TrEMBL record:
<dbReference type="GO" id="GO:0003677">
    <property type="term" value="F:DNA binding"/>
</dbReference>
<feature type="domain" description="THAP-type">
    <location>
        <begin position="1"/>
        <end position="77"/>
    </location>
</feature>
<dbReference type="InterPro" id="IPR006612">
    <property type="entry name" value="THAP_Znf"/>
</dbReference>
<keyword id="KW-0238">DNA-binding</keyword>
<dbReference type="GO" id="GO:0008270">
    <property type="term" value="F:zinc ion binding"/>
</dbReference>
<keyword id="KW-0862">Zinc</keyword>
<dbReference type="InterPro" id="IPR052958">
    <property type="entry name" value="IFN-induced_PKR_regulator"/>
</dbReference>
<keyword id="KW-0479">Metal-binding</keyword>
<dbReference type="Pfam" id="PF05485">
    <property type="entry name" value="THAP"/>
</dbReference>
<protein>
    <recommendedName>
        <fullName>THAP-type domain-containing protein</fullName>
    </recommendedName>
</protein>
<keyword id="KW-0863">Zinc-finger</keyword>
Length: 77
């Protein structure tokens, strides 16, 4: 299943480019900031959990310095 960019007026999907796609944050305050920056009224009534599971933003919406290319996993004791 391809990822689509959730930003207003974006039609990019992962099968069309080498762009990275990022899930909406799980943290409610940060997730709300992403929704505001997307300028899409239809996302405003979604929960942060719904947004995290179903919506993505492409790397074009982030400064290169904001992107960490390593994965962080919680370690088990």
């Amino acid at each position: 299943v391809p990822n689509f960019c959730a930003a207003l007026n974006r039609t990019l999907k992962s099968t069309q480019s080498d762009l990275a796609f990022f899930r909406f944050p799980r943290y409610p305050a940060r997730c709300q900031k992403w929704v505001e920056n997307c300028r899409r009224a239809d996302l405003e009534d979604k929960t942060h959990d719904q947004l995290n599971k179903r919506y993505r933003l492409c790397a074009k919406h982030f400064a290169t310095s904001m992107i960490c290319r390593t994965r962080h996993f919680a370690s088990n004791p």
